[in-house]
Amino acid sequence: MSEKRFKLLQGNEAVVEGAIAAGMRFYAGYPITPSTEIAERSALRLPQVGGKFVQMEDEIGGIAAALGASVAGLKSMTATSGPGFSLKQENIGYAAIAEIPIVIVDVQREGPSTGLPTSPSQGDLMQSKWGTHGDHPVIVISPSSVQECYSETVRAFNMAERFRVPVIFLMDEIIGHLREGCEMIPPEELTISNRRIDRKFNGTMAYAVQEGNYVPEFAPFGKGDHFNVTGLFHDLDGFPTNDNQKTDSQERRLLDKITKRRDRIQKWEEVECEDCETMIVCFGGTARAVQGAMDEAKKQDFFKIGMFRPITVWPFPEEALNKIIRQNKHLRQIIVAEHNDGQMVLEVQRIVEGRVPVIHLGKIDGTTITPEEVLKKIEEEY
Amino acid sequence: MAKTEIRMTGSGGQGVIMGTIILAEAAYEDGKQVVQCQAYGPEARGGSSKAETIVSDDRIHYTKIKYPDLLLSLTQESLDKFKDAVKESTIFVVDSDIEVPEEIMKAHKVYSLPILDSARNVIKNKMSANIISCGAVNELTHVATQEALEAAVLNHVPKGTGDSNLAALRLGAQLIKEYK
User: Fold this and answer.
1) How many CB pairs under 8 A join A and B?
2) Fold match flag (A6-189 vs A269-381)
3) Which side of chain A, N or C, has fewer Cβ within a 10 Å radius?
4) pTM for the full predicted model
5) Nearest Cβ partner of A179 from B37, B40, B62?
6) Is the C-alpha dihedral spanning B104, B107, B112, B115 positive or negative?
7) Across the interface, do B61 and A288 touch by the CB < 8 Å criterion?
8) Mind listing the pLDDT tens digit for each residue in B94-117?
């Protein structure tokens, strides 16, 4: 039976379908609410496409197995929620320094520790950037519809492969458990990136960057040569080094491969930002309430509202936000709406540098921000 | 712009979440825009549970319902919990064992239907109460065609229960048609 192209899917399910379209053939993880459907659907779907699903003994094992599979050549993913995301941090750093492509999904839930397992939150925004120690490259994507769960997962895999980095897919319960229509675009109609393999690998320089490239091509695993993979700073041969110059050049290259190419990584949505009086900055599921507020505002004689939504949340689309502030002469205030006590607002304040008032609208009680609350906040602050 | 907001409530295990999924899937297959979501948490097993679907001709931005066009309650507890989050035009569909407060009877169109009893004694499967509910809700809201609704039911019920669930679906519609 051929699969239907349009389907009613849950956000979590669409992530798996997008991942498989992108070429995911390995999943290892440990089920946790509200991400469990990602493990469940991976368990069902991967064997159907010749892939492997492994339920590991814990969260750390989940990411470790996925990293191992990735080194061995398979596109790999793991998914979790806050408590598991904390446990995975050490191995996210390992993926960063050893340059192992992987997609890590975090369906956020409310609060520290085990918190409120079934309630929406966006409290892991800063953790997704800084959760693992040390300066490290990071790409974080946050979807705000089931369709984006599909298509942005494809982009997450593409960037993981192209840049040899961990990519965090930062979801929230609002979108993870939402069902809506999804177009399952088949792989042949998608842009799919695959890691480059060094066919001329000479068995020693696993981390040498080939001319014209900015990440090392992968040593061909399983073809007879061996190479070393380590979390220590390493030389081009993959073996540890204490040499300060080599440390500096490796760390620089790890960071530069993202920062210098951020124009290829950043993605955002602007809705009526060019002449709005209030601009709301938001990401993920919060955007749905903000759009609801914009719909309501149009029915009434209300202030003109725009929405700026980073889809790639890290690196933040800084230049795009700056451009709006420079060009929109009507802009009187920016409200950052997020389901936390104030995280993205810090980044926005840093970028805005006081040119326009930046106000925070947050929620941390496990319920969701409503369109009414957005409109009320705009009126209060106006 | 036609937009219908449906909230189905009951106790955990009665299948109200599945009921809204079936309605949403049927409407989606008919070419409508839909969203479906539910309250998770301890209330998902026992206690009162809530699930919602919005069906619209246009793109749906906000995913939650404030005041539904139709509120279905299968238990007293769930009606008591959700009866106040309604608007003037909200239609109530409740199981006939439920006591509906006088002020609601006066202010709203209320359909008190033997949903749980029919599931047990006519369909002979108490798990079919949510399908009877789907039939009744669709008869009142027409969010999906009968063909799409039947296909969605068959897509979600266990193998071997297809015929009895289709009978449940028709029974739900019939309860509305014959309601006095």
Assistant:
1) 59
2) yes
3) N
4) 0.96
5) B37
6) negative
7) yes
8) 999 999 999 999 999 999 999 999
